[in-house]
Structures are given as structure tokens and as C-alpha cells.
Automatic annotation (TrEMBL):
Name under which the protein is recorded: Sigma-54-dependent Fis family transcriptional regulator
Source organism (scientific name): Variovorax ureilyticus
UniProt keyword annotation of NADP present: no
SMART domains with a match to the protein in the record: AAA (SM00382)
Any Pfam family matching the protein: HTH_8
Gene3D superfamilies from the UniProt entry: 1.10.8.60, 3.30.450.40, Homeodomain-like, P-loop containing nucleotide triphosphate hydrolases
Renumbered residue ranges of the record's region Disordered: 641-665
Length: 708
């Protein structure tokens, strides 16, 4: 069972120290602990039990780890991240398997030594039957997040501990193991349980994506701003519309057990079908749809689909008509697949025609058409692709489409943004690291992004921002096709297709000595440049597609005056900015059938009418200095949790700077000033600032890193 009712029914019972509880709850807590302790006595345990120092034989531990390799692979990076949060707090993080055997621990050295004294160490079993009441064993027994604090431990020797543990479940509701944070009881913190629960959810969500990467996944929440956060529900839908699995938040929100949910289909749950969902999300732009339970509860839903779902249930239809923009029309139209939300998905029509990811990007512009033809020739030829283009021109979208159209479509597409990962972490992130590669803690190694991409495609976004020292290592990997993790002597062979992208002029960087020429020649098997939106001749088709995707029912037209304004505008944020402007306008024009000038936001209108636009992003040489924003972000959270919640949906268009910059010396400095002041006006909310400026979040990170 994924969402044990007891956790929902009485959270305080397991989350708060007895001292902090109001009297009635203290009584309830005491009764509960007594019940747990009676259970242990009935098992024949005594409170003066000596710690059992006899862990599994070395070989047995290896077998247990082998058996739980997948759990470990998903949990290890999360444990590392969790460790960053609790470092120097006299505590440790423990991963145990479903039998209670500790597989792995990470922690402060001093506390690990104290934990050793009570056998809280890999190889030892901490199920209730061997260690009495303790968070690991009791969470496994109760199948619920559990805190066991100080004297609540059954065995006296464990009274110095405070432990918070959360079970980990797979998407079908089977328990996989438990994640626990244990510390000195004097350093108990009530937020620890929250951190552990969130971390367990991260592991569960990764497990789900891994299991069902090639299935349609619906991400939903009753509040649209929570989609994309750990609070979102995820359900996996089979080709026939049946629900195959779900994460814990989905079960909480739908108020159903895993088994009950898996009896449902999209039709019985939401009154819709998989083809209808595909149809809604066919465009490259991710806009949530609204689905309703039979009791009237509404959810905002977005869809993810990473691979070809060749057997997607579709009613037989006549051969689709495909226009020059790749749009199909007529009563026999197929569900059209988006290249963005559905990540460059590929589908087969009833007549067997293949509609590829690249096909959907071909919207009638001759430059784009020629580019797609070129790219199609090198697919599956082991020729590296380098995509150039300004921010928001669709470089990542193109890379995903190439992956989807290749033989590697069923393997991972791993995107690494070299600009948004702090320099100090890029190496570990890319190449991975071995046990003991870092000092100060007993830490297990982690698999790097290159190895994760094995068999599939590695997308190196903003490759021009990779530090020089790492360029040499990357070059070696590309030449030798093997990776050596940090601190390891062993190399791991990898089979990857590499796609690089940058908005920088790499040749200029080579001349300036900031980009290696040999790496450039390794990456540039085929170089394609995506045109800026202002240079394209298909703005009207792209705009219509975006609107079709945003408002499939009642798509507004664009008036001739607005289209004329659009065509004269410089679009410094390219397609991303166009989509933001249209999204707002469509909301303003709801029910009127046509977008007119008065539906556009004032600041955009002012810029567009005056022929003024924020200057297109400047290409400057990177000077790496201490990054004020990006390095403050932990490795796996480039978007701080909760940040999206403050984000108004309908923000768009470039903003006016709220303060005069202090006489900047160069264009680059002016840009940074503008970004800083916009960020300040948006109360530091990067998403809001990026929408106002019409540039990506990554561009903001990057610019601020160079702005000092
Ligand atoms: N041809 C297109 N049709 C519809 N939407 C598009 C198209 N090209 C790009 N977009 C949308 O524009 C946004 C930016 O696209 P993408 O992230 O691929 O650009 P990028 O060039 O990689 O940006 P950056 O350099 O800032 O990372 C996305 O929301 C994407 O869905």
C-alpha cells in the first residue's frame, strides 16, 4: 500500500517529540509506544539486549546490495543531497532494504563512530524483531513514516538516538526499503521528518520515471503552480488507457489506494481517453489541461512521454492530411504528438505512417526545412551534432526530436546544462565519483550523467560554458568512449550519441583561448544554426501551433494588426517569448475569438509599437567568477523548491527596468543590471524574471555568474 491511511489520519502521532506535544496527544503517543514495546516483548526481546555486532558476512552484504542495486542507484544521489542539508549536525543517513538490513550509510564521521557502537552500520539488520522499536524497523512494520526518539527506543543502548524514517514504495505499492536520518537525540529537529519524507518521494518518483519512461505520464495537482514540484501527483497510463501505477502524491490527492487506482482507466477516472490527452498535448508547448473526477474535483494536468508508444490506442482513421506546417486536418485527423511536452514523441498513424519529432518542427520556414533535412541525414550515423542559436530558439527541442527519431529513442536522453551547474560540481555530475572520492564523510559513489546516458543521447547544453579544465576530460571520454569516475582507477565503457548546443561563438572562444579547438572538432560533426524567430518566415504558423496547443477548444485567431506587430518585433527571447506573449493574450481574449492589440500586455505593446525591444542576448566571453545565484543552488535543485508557487501564470513580455543602472560600462554590464533589477522587482523569483525578460532561467543564471 503506497499511502498508508494511518500516516494521513494521525500525522502528529509519529512526527513530534513527546515533550513538544500537547497533553492529550502525549497520552496518545505514550499509548502507541507502549503498544510498540509490547510487540517487541512478545518477540522475546529484552530492553537490556546488547547491540548485535555480528553483521552479515561480507559476502552476504554484497549479495544484499546486489539484490537492491536499483534501489541503491536511485537512493544514492538523494542521500548525498540530503547529507548536504544535515552535514555537521551529528547525524547520519541510512538506507535499509525491505528486510531492515542496512545497505548504505552516509554521515558525519564522529557520529558514524558512535553509531558503530550500537551496530547501526551496513550489513546489520534493524528490523523490529532484532532491534526492537526503532524508526527503521517500525517504519517497515507500520508501512508509514515514523519518528522514534530517545527513550522511545525499546533497547536501552539506543536511547541516545533520535531517528526519522520513511518507507520507499514502488509505483505498484510494493515496499522497497526505508530511508532514515538518525542523530543524537539532543539535536532532534522536527523538520527532519519532512526532509526524509520528501527525499523518499524523490526516490519513488525517479523509480517511477525509470519504470515507465516510455509510457504516458500525467503530472497533476489541484494547484497549477505545484506541477513540477515534489507535491505533484503522477499517474502512468497504458496504451489502452488503463492506469498502470502512481506516485504517493497521486494517491493522496485522489484519496485512493494503489490497488484501487489500478482498477481504473483514464475514462473511469477522468472521463477522457489516452488519444484525447495526446491530442491536447500535441503541440510543443506545455500548457496544462484540466481534468475532473466524477465528484467534481478538478486537477491541472501536464503530460510527459519520452519514447515511442507504438501501440497507443487510436481509433482507426482515414489517412491524415498533413499540411506544410505538419498540422493535420479533417475528421480523420490523428492525435498529433507534441515535440516538447511529449518530448519529441514519435507515433504511428493507423496507416502506419511515421510522424517523427523532427517532422513536427518543420513548420514551413525554408531555413528550418533545410536544417531538418541536413539533420535527418546524420541520424544513426554516429556523427556528433552541434546546435547553435540564440536563447529560446528551440535547441533542446531539436536535440530531443533527433533523439526520438533515432534508434536510441528507447534509451535515455540525458540533458546536462553546463551553465547552470556550479563549476565545482560539473566534474562530479558528468563523470560520477567513487567511494571516498570526497573527504570528511563516508560516502558511496554516484553514477555520472555520461554513464546515465549509456545507450542513449547525451545533450550538452551551453557547451561553451564548460570550464577549460573539464573540456580536456570530456574530449578524452568522446575519443576513448569510456569514463573514469572521480577517485576511481577503473574505466566504464559508454556508448552515447552526443549533441552539443550553445548560443556562443565557439570559434571566437577558440581564438580567445577559452574553448579547446580539438574538442570543437570532436563536437562539430554537423553544425546547424537555428535561426532567430525574427529571421523566420513561419511566425504565423508557429504562433497558431502554440495557440492550438494552449487552447485546443476555441483557439483564438490573431488579428492582422497584431500579426503585423509580431512580424515587426525583434523577439529577443525567440519562440519562448512568443509563447509567453500568446499565452497571456489568449487568456485576455478568452471568449472573444480573436487576439487584438488590447489583449497584449502594455509593456510588450509599448516596445512593439515603438520598434524597441530589449537587445538580443549578447554573446560575450565567459569569465568565471563566484556565481551569486547558481552556486547557491544544491546540485539537483537548479529550481528552488517552492519558487514556482509565487509565480503568476500570465506574466509575459519584456519588463522595463525598475531602476536606472549605475552607468554600466559595457553592453554586457547593462544586461546584467537589467536582469538584476528585474529579479529584484520580481522578489528574486527567477521564473517570473525570466518570463518578464523573455529569456530562459538558464540565461539568467549564466548572465549573473558572469556579471560581477
Ligand atoms: N518550433 C517551435 N514550436 C513551438 N514551440 C517551440 C518551438 N521552438 C521552441 N519552442 C518552445 O520554446 C521554448 C524554448 O525552447 P528550447 O528550450 O528548446 O530553446 P533553447 O534554444 O534550448 O533555449 P535556451 O538556449 O534558453 O536553453 C520551449 O518552451 C519550447 O517548447
Amino acid at each position: 500500500m503506497v499511502a498508508p491511511p494511518r500516516e494521513l489520519a494521525a500525522p502528529a502521532r509519529t512526527w513530534t517529540t513527546p515533550e513538544a506535544l500537547p497533553l492529550p496527544q502525549q497520552k496518545e503517543r505514550t499509548e502507541l509506544i507502549e503498544q510498540w514495546h509490547q510487540r517487541c516483548s512478545a518477540l522475546g526481546l529484552t530492553r537490556v539486549e546488547r547491540p548485535d555486532f555480528e553483521p552479515l558476512m561480507r559476502g552476504d552484504l554484497a549479495v544484499a546490495r546486489e539484490r537492491n542495486q536499483r534501489l541503491f542507484t536511485h537512493a544514492a544521489p538523494v542521500m548525498e543531497m540530503l547529507f548536504e542539508q544535515i552535514v555537521d549536525t551529528e547525524s547520519m543517513i541510512v538506507l535499509a532494504d525491505v528486510s531492515g538490513t542496512i545497505l548504505h550509510s552516509v554521515g558525519d564521521d564522529r557520529f558514524l563512530q558512535r553509531a558503530d557502537k550500537v551496530a547501526l552500520t551496513p550489513g546489520v539488520n534493524w528490523a523490529e524483531h532484532s532491534k526492537g522499536t526503532n524508526a527503521i524497523g517500525t517504519a517497515l512494520f507500520e508501512e508509514a513514516p515514523t519518528v522514534v526518539h530517545g527513550g522511545e527506543h525499546f533497547i536501552h543502548a539506543n536511547h541516545f538516538l533520535t531517528c526519522s524514517a520513511a518507507p520507499i514504495f514502488d509505483p505498484r505499492g510494493n515496499m522497497l526499503g526505508v530511508l532514515d536520518v538518525t542523530g543524537d537525540q539532543r539535536s532532534y529537529h522536527r523538520h527532519t521528518m519532512g526532509l526524509v519524507r520528501m527525499s523518499a518521494r524523490m526516490i519513488e518518483n525517479q523509480w517511477l520515471s525509470d519504470d515507465y519512461g516510455n509510457r504516458l505520464r500525467l503530472h497533476f495537482h489541484s494547484r497549477v503552480e505545484f506541477i513540477g514540484t515534489l507535491l505533484e501527483g503522477i499517474i502512468v497510463v497504458g496504451a489502452d488507457g488503463k492506469i498502470l501505477g502512481a506516485n504517493r502524491s497521486a494517491l493522496d490527492q485522489l484519496d485512493m489506494s494503489s490497488a484501487a487506482l489500478r482498477m481504473h482507466s483514464l475514462t473511469s477516472l477522468f472521463g477522457t481517453t489516452a488519444p484525447a490527452v495526446f491530442d491536447h498535448f500535441r503541440s510543443p508547448l506545455p500548457t496544462p489541461m484540466t481534468l475532473c473526477l466524477s465528484n467534481g474535483r478538478q486537477f491541472h494536468v501536464s503530460a510527459r512521454f519520452n519514447g515511442p508508444q507504438r501501440s497507443m490506442a487510436m481509433e482507426p482513421r482515414s489517412a491524415p492530411v498533413v499540411d506544410s506546417a505538419g498540422l493535420r486536418s479533417g475528421a480523420g485527423a490523428e492525435p498529433r504528438l507534441p515535440a516538447g511536452v511529449l518530448a519529441g514523441a514519435t507515433a504511428h498513424s493507423a496507416d502506419g505512417t511515421l510522424f517523427s519529432g523532427l517532422h513536427y518542427l518543420n513548420t514551413g520556414d525554408p531555413q528550418i526545412g533545410a536544417l531538418i533535412q541536413k539533420v535527418q541525414r546524420v541520424i544513426n550515423r554516429d556523427i556528433p551534432l552541434l546546435i547553435l542559436g540564440e536563447t529560446g530558439t528551440g535547441k533542446e527541442l531539436l536535440a530531443r526530436a533527433v533523439h526520438q527519431d533515432s534508434n536510441r529513442a528507447r534509451q535515455p536522453f540525458v540533458a546536462v546544462n553546463c551553465a547552470s551547474i556550479p563549476e565545482s560540481l560539473i566534474e562530479a555530475e558528468l563523470f560520477g565519483y567513487e567511494d571516498g572520492a570526497f573527504t570528511g564523510a563516508r560516502r558511496k559513489g554516484a553514477v555520472g550523467r555520461i554513464v546515465q546516458a549509456n545507450g542513449g543521447t547525451l545533450f550538452l547544453d551551453e557547451i561553451g560554458d564548460m570550464p577549460l579544465a573539464l573540456q580536456a576530460r570530456l574530449l578524452r571520454v568522446l575519443q576513448e568512449r569510456q569514463v573514469t569516475p572521480l577517485g576511481s582507477l577503473k574505466s566504464i565503457p559508454v556508448d552515447i550519441a552526443v549533441i552539443g548546443a550553445t548560443h556562443r561563438k565557439l570559434r571566437d572562444m577558440i581564438e580567445a583561448g577559452s574553448f579547446r579547438e580539438d574538442l570543437y572538432y570532436r563536437l562539430n560533426g554537423l553544425v546547424v544554426k537555428l535561426p532567430a524567430l525574427r529571421e523566420r518566415h513561419d511566425l504565423d504558423v508557429v504562433a497558431r501551433r502554440i495557440l492550438l496547443s494552449d487552447c485546443p477548444h476555441g483557439t483564438p485567431e490573431i488579428s492582422a494588426r497584431v500579426m503585423a506587430l509580431f512580424k515587426a518585433y525583434a523577439w529577443p527571447g525567440n519562440v519562448r517569448q512568443l509563447a509567453n506573449v500568446l499565452r497571456t493574450a489568449a487568456v485576455m481574449a478568452a471568449g472573444e475569438g480573436q487576439i487584438e492589440e488590447h489583449h497584449l500586455s502594455d509593456d510588450f505593446l509599448e516596445d512593439a509599437r515603438s520598434g524597441r525591444a530589449p537587445s538580443p542576448p549578447q554573446v560575450s566571453m565567459p569569465i568565471r567568477v563566484a556565481p551569486p545565484v547558481a552556486e547557491a543552488m544544491p546540485m539537483h535543485f537548479t529550481e528552488p523548491l517552492g519558487e514556482r508557487s509565487a509565480e503568476p501564470e500570465a506574466e509575459s513580455g519584456p519588463a522595463q527596468a525598475t531602476a536606472e543602472p549605475a552607468t554600466p560600462r559595457t553592453l554586457g554590464e547593462a544586461e546584467v543590471e537589467l536582469i538584476r533589477s528585474t529579479l529584484a522587482a520580481a522578489n528574486g523569483n527567477i521564473s517570473v524574471a525570466s518570463k518578464r525578460l523573455g529569456i530562459s532561467r538558464n540565461t539568467i543564471y549564466r548572465k549573473l555568474r558572469w556579471g560581477k
